[in-house]
Design a protein that fits this description.
heterodimer; A: 813 residues; alpha+beta; twelve-stranded antiparallel β-sheet; 27 helices; B: mainly beta; four-stranded antiparallel β-sheet; 5 helices; 36 strands; globular
Chain lengths: 813, 565
């Protein structure tokens, strides 16, 4: 009994402590992670100055531009009114760790409810802005998609897309870990005590604290949260919360998970199931007086300093420079004369240090380059780029978050196969234009990553150029450009051969890869990577990327493939570079092999038939290609009813026909391709010229397979039924066998004839044999009626089919 | 099954809120602290449970009003026979997993011996056995035919299977009866094929006269060489290969005849119980939203590029000199005499984004309360929608409703099994679908439980009559505020799709419940000819208090009947 009482008490105490321990002070990731213990460094305080919007009231130079607050337009129509009211009453109580200061204490207690009422009226007086979501055949958008989220899917997405780099990890989520990270592996291998590791500078990085979120279920409904997640910038122009490129259904899943709404569970919910949180409605009783009152109050409370609201002007306080740190009044002294931030002593110290530094700034001079580098690092602190990316020994994914960064195949290919890339000297590695498109959310060379590089909107516009500028200024000798002359000499074939010596073991090229590998597609690398970096990286990968699994193919500066280009290192690299950046080059042999393993049709015991598109000079769009095990193949055009092409060696690759949306023509893989006449059948009235038989008098009837599964084509030509099959003769040549039935002449008394044009431009060898320019040797049986139409040295060769019953023609080439 | 709110979910929600403190404690304490840590953790779990339970109680009281909440799965259960891994099948160089049977189902037909024939897009026909097993752990796969060029339909016709390939209609025969096709008979060929990827050919479907119908997709973005293989109508300026955008029949004597034109992407064909054949079209240029059309000689449906063939011998459409671009659809009908409205518009997103196959429920009740109705497959949203048709003034029109979503991939084909259940053939290659798998085969089975649905909507001279699947609670059904009605139409133009235009709220002045409690007659004004009338009956409850599973229906009112029905 006593024990139970204790238990209950403990539980109550625990709940209370949870309740009370909600973070009261504002949380700023860049400060918390890097400057909490270095309060004398003014940078930490500077981050607080912008992220807590100090400089929204205390103006400062433009590199301390305040973050700004969310857009308030229509806020009352997307956020629950109860939540807004509670938040206004006490921001830190409603959202522990939030950066919005308490302002309403400036309104006398007795007037506060009325104040909130009018503020709500104002915030609800406009429609909430929503992103425009375009649906099409390629982009599914379910009707009322926000109602159709799935909690489990949302939970998975939350942990895989990258949300947890900044936000809290859900312990209930079962992560399937591929393996330890490279650093963990290394530490484990050393087998040392933590303090020894620390001395080596090898300790596991410290935990990263998550950025707090509001209580989603109290704040949003499914619709407003989904819309927010799809386009965070609409509501939060500050861009600290980036867009994770969510599809509408993904946003719905995430919203379902974050709100914990179980209307949508494993089965998508019904359209009839209305959003249970649909109590966010535009108030119909629009009280203009109340709205105006709310607006006035907003202006008075200086809300417009952080939140841009219609035509309200900010109310500025003393500029930052003029602030006296020993003043008795003000935000840092918490005398309730202004906003209450709930700052910790450390945060206050840091802010004071930064203001002191600003006071002293005139006396210090810094080089422009230094200022640029610091400015860049500062932006990365503000945007929390460090949550994912390491640069200059700072930041990167926190150790608790490591297991959640995975590739789609859960393949252990090192940290670079799953973790966001470090950004050290990225400005020397990447082209500015490519960096720009990555930042705009367009470039993605790592489709095998589960985590997504988010879009930070306009705030990162200048970042690409800044990286390039800062890194160029800090360049070292390892990326010295090779002299121009060597760079211009290259050998594409050698480049192709070099690919096989290593690259294709991990990398894709032009979307082809060896099965079971995943790696960045290195085609068109010049669009992304700078030439100098490429060369330096190839020469010594580890010097530019620690822990990389990219091996060096040039140990001690010598090529490991000495037989190519005499082992000339610069020439090899130049050739590889050119090959990678060329469009119409054959695939590296190993990729070609792996591709053909999957899709090359290789007839073994029986012929293979493939109906496909072929080029118009070959069998065209009605092609029936036949591959024989004896490596002789042909293509029949079922539209013009003719044998169109014969070739030897390899048959065809079926990938385009089977699986490529663009339905490209199949092109014979083999050699000795011979194209046959584009018109096959002619007729001739006695003593007249040969005339091609009109296509409307040709009819294809299909084919049947004989006991060897060789197709026997059936068609009719001008009323004659013909069976036409091609197989191997005893001398390993192709023999084409025609069987001709009498024409149905019931409707006509006209005498008709059908002639087959064997080939044009033949040179006579003997009576039954002739050869063509493409060295095709044709042979007909003795006694068959045939004609030559002479054109100078060569002739068109015709044989009569009608009335013959069976005719064999041999094709040798 | 009452509400999906389960304690498990709620508890998990709470765990998230507390998750952070748990994780911190776990990591930072060394071995020495473990007993203490465990105690602490146990405490955490206990407290979570308690708080969780309180939380559940709260939720249930909050939702007391919505106590009965059913999901589609309570009425129609999905059985997965096979599905592939998810992959980006829109990617240019999409490849299936090696060594797998790439069951991109593009045609389904049940065989007399109980097996299911499945045509797949790479060009084969497979016979699947034991497909009705539940769970389907014993499905057998046998390849019957191969070397077909993207067959997009399958029909058992006069004892053998018939398909339509890109270039021909083909009958597959097994002369030596070894269960493998040995003769591919060309039944009909001769339509234009320039080699453009978008020139799909669909079918066949038999009508009551013994004709076999096929439909031909328009080419899209013809390359220069492809253009030279196309026809151009110089008056109208449209260029497409012969009979592209047309529906054609192959008569029992083997003749191939063009019948009707104006299709864009007619990927679905199907007949109703009368043997009339319908096709579905997909939103795009000139096609305002997905639609269902009755195939008949001389009809022109909407997309004018098919008029490139209008002067060819055999054309059934009178030449026109101009196609209006930008009019509201009802005005376009007045202006362009050949233009025939669809029997049903399927409003975008609300009833799908890319309509596919058409299947009539011929199971006489084994598939639930919708016997005789038409089901339309849905590619992008991986779902199936439902259509009720009636004939007014000799023409089909009617209403569509959402039916079942949540398939693993795009629903491309449907076939009703011998037990009334419905096979859904899946493949999303080339586009995208909500269901992330690339392909597969699933089966939809009626659980036997009656869903509360609007079964039918009839047009009446002064409004509509709704037929429900279950008797309605009279107080909610007779209350005019239980219904929200609007109407809208679309713009007939060369752009991709159309917004809902000329939208209007309608006035419901009277709701009269029939004596048997299954029908409600609504007096509505105004009614507008050719407009889509949206009926939202979310206020209606069944006599046992159940709300509608789908509260919305969309009636295409091409004709307003002039007398009571």
């Amino acid at each position: 009994m006593f024990r139970r009482l204790v238990n209950v008490l403990v539980v109550v105490f625990f709940c209370l402590s949870q309740y009370l321990s909600a973070r009261a002070e504002p949380f700023v990731a860049g400060f918390d992670r890097f400057y909490k213990e270095k309060t004398s460094d003014p940078t930490g305080g500077r981050v607080l100055l912008t992220e807590l919007n100090c400089t929204a009231c205390h103006s400062a130079e433009k590199d301390l531009k305040p973050k700004g607050g969310p857009s308030l337009s229509g806020a009352g129509n997307r956020i629950r009114p109860d939540w807004i009211a509670s938040y206004l009453r006490s921001p830190s109580h409603e959202k522990g760790g939030g950066t919005m200061p308490h302002m309403l204490h400036l309104v006398p207690e007795k007037d506060r409810d009325a104040a909130i009422h009018s503020l709500l009226a104002f915030l609800s007086s406009e429609d909430a802005e929503e992103p425009k979501i375009v649906a099409s055949g390629g982009s599914p958008v379910a009707h009322e998609f926000w109602l159709k989220g799935d909690i489990a899917r949302g939970q998975t997405l939350y942990h895989q897309a990258g949300c947890i780099a900044c936000h809290r990890i859900d312990e209930a989520f079962q992560v399937q870990k591929t393996g330890p990270s490279d650093l963990e592996r290394k530490i484990a291998s050393l087998n040392m005590e933590p303090d020894e590791l620390e001395e080596l500078g090898l300790a596991l990085p410290k935990d990263v604290q998550p950025i707090p979120m509001s209580k989603m279920a109290s704040k949003y409904n499914l619709r407003s949260l989904s819309m927010f997640l799809i386009a965070p910038h609409l509501v939060r122009p500050a861009g600290r919360m980036p867009s994770l490129k969510l599809q509408p259904h993904e946003a719905a899943d995430l919203a379902a998970y974050l709100i914990g709404n179980s209307v949508a569970s494993s089965e998508p919910s019904q359209s009839a199931a209305k959003d249970p949180a649909s109590d966010i409605q535009k108030s119909h009783d629009h009280d203009e007086v109340l709205v105006q009152h709310g607006k006035t109050l907003l202006a008075k409370l200086a809300c417009a300093n952080c939140h841009s609201i219609a035509d309200i002007k900010p109310v500025m306080s003393k500029p930052l420079k003029e602030l006296r740190l020993n003043a008795l009044r003000g935000c840092l002294n918490e005398d309730n004369s202004g906003p209450i931030f709930g700052l910790t002593e450390l945060q206050k110290e840091a802010i004071q240090a930064s203001i002191k530094a600003i006071h002293a700034e005139e006396s210090t001079t810094k080089s422009v380059a230094n200022r640029k580098a610091e400015g860049l690092a500062f932006t990365m602190l503000q945007l929390n780029c460090y949550a994912c990316h390491e640069r200059g020994g700072r930041g990167g994914v926190g150790p608790k978050q490591w297991p959640f960064f995975e590739n789609t195949q859960q393949m252990d290919i090192g940290d670079e196969g799953r973790m966001p890339p470090p950004l050290d000297h990225v400005g020397r590695k990447l082209q500015t234009s490519w960096l720009q498109s990555v930042l705009e959310g367009k470039g993605n060379v790592r489709p095998h990553f589960r985590a997504r590089m988010p879009i930070y909107s306009d705030h990162v516009k200048s970042l690409a150029a800044a990286f390039v500028e800062v890194d160029a200024a800090h360049g070292s000798d390892d990326t010295k450009p090779s002299d121009e002359k060597t760079a211009r000499t290259f050998d594409l074939n050698a480049g192709r051969e070099l690919m096989d010596s290593g690259c294709v073991q991990c990398h894709a090229f032009q979307t082809e890869s060896i099965p079971g590998t995943i790696g960045i597609d290195i085609a068109d690398i010049g669009k992304r990577v700078q030439r100098e970096w490429f060369e330096a990286f190839l020469l010594n990968p580890a010097s530019l990327k620690k822990n990389t699994r990219m091996p060096t193919f040039f140990p001690d500066g010598k090529s490991s493939v000495p037989h190519v280009l005499d082992g000339d290192v610069r020439l090899q690299i130049a050739s590889l570079w050119e090959y990678l950046n060329s469009k119409d080059v054959p695939l590296p042999t190993k990729l070609e092999q792996s591709r053909s393993l999957l899709f090359e049709l290789v007839p073994h015991d029986a012929p293979i038939v493939l109906r496909t598109f072929m080029e118009s000079k070959s069998a065209g769009t009605y092609a029936i290609a036949v591959g024989l095990p004896e490596k002789m193949h042909y293509a029949f055009d079922a539209h013009q009813v003719r044998l169109a092409e014969i070739w030897k060696g390899k048959f065809l690759n079926a990938q385009g026909t089977w699986f490529d949306r663009s339905a490209p023509p199949a092109i014979p893989l083999g050699s000795d391709r011979v194209l046959l006449p584009s018109t096959s059948f002619y007729s001739r009235k006695p003593k007249q010229q040969f005339v091609p038989i009109d296509i409307n008098r040709l009819r294809f009837h299909g084919y049947r397979l004989d006991s060897q599964r060789i197709p026997i084509f059936r068609y009719s030509v001008d009323g004659f039924s013909i069976e036409d099959s091609i197989r191997l003769d005893s001398e390993q040549a192709l023999v084409r066998q025609f069987k001709v039935s009498d024409a149905d002449t019931s409707n006509t008394s006209e005498v008709r004839s059908v002639w087959l044009l064997l080939s044009d431009n033949v040179v006579q060898i003997d009576k039954e044999t002739a050869s063509t320019r493409s060295s095709l040797k044709l042979q007909i049986p003795a006694g068959v009626e045939h004609q030559r139409i002479q054109h100078g040295e060569t002739s068109d060769w015709m044989i009569l089919l009608s009335g013959q019953k069976a005719v064999e023609v041999h094709y040798r080439w | 099954m009452v509400s999906n709110d389960s304690p498990i979910h709620c508890e998990r929600t709470f765990l998230i809120l507390l998750g952070n403190s748990v994780s911190t404690s776990k990591r930072q304490h060394g071995k020495r602290f473990q007993p203490m840590l465990f105690g602490f953790l146990r405490l955490l779990v206990t407290s979570n449970l308690i708080v969780g339970i309180i939380f559940v109680a709260n939720i249930q009281s909050l939702h007391a009003d919505n106590a009965i909440k059913f999901a589609e799965s309570d009425f129609y259960r999905m059985v997965t026979i096979t599905t592939s891994q998810a992959s980006d099948s829109r990617a240019k160089n999409w490849k299936p997993a090696p060594d797998s049977l790439v069951l991109e189902a593009s045609g389904l037909a049940k065989l007399p011996d109980g097996r299911l024939a499945v045509a797949i897009r790479k060009g084969e026909v497979w016979f699947l056995s034991n497909v009705y097993d539940d769970p389907p752990n014993n499905v057998g796969y046998h390849r019957f035919a191969s070397s077909l060029h993207e067959p997009l339909g399958l029909l058992l016709h006069q004892g053998s299977l018939v398909t339509v390939q890109r270039t021909e209609m083909t009958r597959m025969l097994d002369k030596d009866q070894d269960d493998v096709c040995d003769e591919y008979q060309t039944m009909a060929t001769g339509w234009g094929v320039t080699g453009n990827y978008h020139e799909y050919a669909f079918g066949p479907e038999a009508d009551s006269d013994g004709n076999l119908w096929l439909t031909l997709n328009l080419g899209l973005g013809l390359k220069s060489e492809q253009k030279s293989a196309a026809l151009t109508n110089s008056t109208l300026g449209f260029s497409q290969a012969l009979w592209r955008g047309w529906g054609m029949i192959v008569k029992p004597d083997g003749q191939l005849l063009p019948m009707c034109a104006g299709m864009r992407s007619p990927s679905g064909l199907g007949n109703n119980l009368n043997g009339d054949v319908f096709y579905s079209d997909q939103q795009g240029n000139w096609v305002a939203t997905n639609s269902l059309h009755h195939l008949r000689k001389g009809a022109f449906f909407h997309h004018p590029e098919g008029l490139a063939s209008i002067n060819q011998p055999g054309s059934t459409i009178e030449p026109v000199s101009e196609v209006p671009d930008g009019l509201p659809f009802p005005d376009a009908i007045q202006k362009l005499s050949i233009l025939k409205p669809p029997a049903v518009w399927l409003p975008y997103k609300k009833v799908g984004q890319s309509a596919t196959d058409i299947m009539v429920d011929a199971s006489d009740g084994k598939f639930g309360p919708f016997a005789g109705q038409i089901f339309v497959g849905e590619f992008t949203q991986s779902s199936i929608n439902r259509v009720y048709l009636e004939k007014i003034d000799g023409e089909y029109q009617g209403a569509c409703f959402p039916f079942r979503e949540g398939f693993a991939s795009a629903v491309l084909r449907m076939e009703q099994g011998t037990d009334g259940s419905v096979f859904a053939g899946l493949s999303n290659r080339g586009w995208s679908s909500l269901g992330p798998a690339s392909y597969g085969l699933q089966r939809l089975v009626w659980t036997g439980r009656m869903p509360m649905e609007m079964k039918e909507i009839w047009a009446q001279p002064d409004g509509f009559e709704i037929v429900f699947t279950k008797t309605v609670d009279k107080s909610s059904a007779a209350n005019v505020s239980s219904y929200q009605l609007t109407s809208h139409t679309y713009r007939y133009h060369s752009q991709y799709g159309s917004d809902d235009i000329l939208e209007k709220q309608l006035d419901v002045s009277k709701a009269t419940v029939s004596e048997d409690g299954l029908r409600v007659r609504l007096v509505v004004s105004p009614l507008r000819q050719y407009f889509v009338h949206t009926l939202d009956a979310s206020g209606v409850r069944s006599t046992d208090g159940e709300p509608l599973l789908h509260s919305d229906g969309y009636y295409t009112l091409n004709h307003i009947p002039n007398q009571d029905r």
